[in-house]
Amino acid sequence: MNSPQFTAEPSPSDADPYPVPYDVIIAGCGPTGAMLAAELRLHDVRVLVLEKETEPAPFVRIVGLHIRSLELMAMRGLLDRVLEHGRRRPAAGFFAGISKPAPEGLDSAHAYLLGIPHPVIVRLLEEHAVQLGAQVRRGCAVAGFEQDDEGVTVDLADGEQLRARYLVGCDGGRSAVRKLLGVGFPGEPSRTETLMGEMEVGVPQEEVAAKVAEIGETNKRFWLRPFGGGAYSVVVPAAGVGDRAEPPTLQDFKQQLRAIAGTDFGVHSPRWLSRFGDATRLAERYRVGRVLLAGDAAHIHPPTGGQGLNLGVQDAFNLGWKLAAQIRGWAPETLLDTYQTERRPVAENVLDNTRAQMELHSTEPGPQALRRLLTELMDIDEVNRRLIEKIAAIDIRYDFGDGPDLLGRRLRDIEVKQGHLYGLLHRGRGLLLDRTARLTVGGWSDRVDHLADPTAVLDVPCVLLRPDGHVAWIGDDQQDLDDHLSRWFGEPAG
């Protein structure tokens, strides 16, 4: 199961009756775009990533990788590299910032949160994609496109035209691709806004900590936390909703700190300043013909719970192998459509839980009473566990039809005779885990690996895993297996 070698330069595909320089153009090289590029390259798809910014963002914002995203990193052999740059913390206190201990026995070998600087995770995923052969061009903004039956012609802001078989917009909440595609983005505009930045303070740390603890009893959108090097991470509610394209000033921070805390803590020497709102929107469609949307281009929501980056990376994991199958010519007829039918409901659930969390952040008496009630209920292990599993995205079950509860869910990283299960998924192929040692993947062996392992820790005879780690079939009958191999992996070769 050694990884195949890739070339960085695109070459025409013999199977493509309409030769174009690229199979897929991706707009946006954030975490979603970079992960999608890497997933496509695992299947030798010719990928070009266009990033409108010439340089990475100048500020360092810490983001959290939740359990499911850590599992995906392990599935592609990236986890050790990511762990080197992050800081682990317990899988607890995510939901509306309600402080409760992590439930015991979460169903994962990676049951923790990893805090990691946003520019670092972007860099690591981009490097991964480039190592696999993806091309990245910076300073290139999509200005327009036209699609036809064979592909998409993309117009760049500088007048250059590019041609690909598919275009994927991973270009953020203000996605140019989504707007040009004419896909509706209904939802709620920002009602509140929060200032965020890094700066130094002019008072002792003890004074800061005491005031933050006092205000934090009722205001969960306020904190000052030591960030290292003498700097503090500062988050404070804004006075209103402004133009997010315009960064706030240090004076804005001072004014709001004084209004809420009675002091501005002597903040000075800002490293970076930004603002975020609580707008919540979901694209009406994730696909129109040969153009698709993923990540923030398809959904935006408040950052409470830290789910945004994770949701986008998981979109890419779901889409990558399906789009590659379409391009390589073996995808079943409706496979690419399952990207929307599976991922859009997940986004709807995330939007709903962030709406609920934002209500619980309110300082009004009603939401505060509800927060106190939920805080009591979370002492019940089942309630606490359910909310953590929801935020960490390990509760997702895609609808694959009737069957055991495991069907449609992701399989945890169990031990197998070759080590760990996720170590067998680095190539982005399907996997039959066969405890009977009498089944075969037959004509699908170019797309699906087979591991006969009677010792695998499972309470079912055999499982068929999709490349994204979700269980596509459970059973022990060869004909039934063949039917499901055809459902997910097309017709057998030969």
How would you characterize this protein structure?
It is a single chain. The protein has 494 residues and is α+β, with helices and mostly antiparallel strands. The protein contains twelve helices and 24 strands. The strands form six sheets. Strands 1, 2, 6, 7, 8, 9, 16 and 17 form an eight-stranded mixed sheet that branches. A four-stranded antiparallel sheet has the order 12-13-11-14. The model is unreliable at 1-18 (pLDDT under 50).
Features:
globular; 24 strands; eight-stranded mixed beta sheet; alpha+beta; 494 residues
**Structural class by secondary-structure content:** alpha+beta
Fraction of residues in H or I helices: 25-40%
Distance between the termini: 22 Å
Question: What integer is the average pLDDT?
Answer: 92
Low-confidence spans = 1-18
Strand content: 15-25%
E-strand count: 24
Overall outline? globular
Q: How is this fold's topology laid out?
A:
Blueprint: E1 22-27, H1 31-41, E2 47-51, E3 62-65, H2 67-75, H3 79-83, E4 87-90, E5 112-117, H4 118-131, E6 135-138, E7 142-147, E8 152-156, E9 161-169, H5 176-181, E10 187-188, E11 193-200, H6 205-216, E12 223-228, E13 231-237, H7 250-261, E14 268-277, E15 280-282, E16 287-288, E17 291-293, E18 299-300, H8 308-328, H9 338-361, H10 365-377, H11 381-392, E19 415-416, E20 419-420, E21 430-434, E22 448-452, E23 462-465, E24 471-474, H12 478-489
Parallel strand pairs: 1-2, 1-9, 2-6, 9-17, 21-22
Antiparallel strand pairs: 3-5, 4-5, 7-8, 8-9, 10-15, 11-13, 11-14, 12-13, 15-18, 16-17, 19-20, 21-23, 23-24
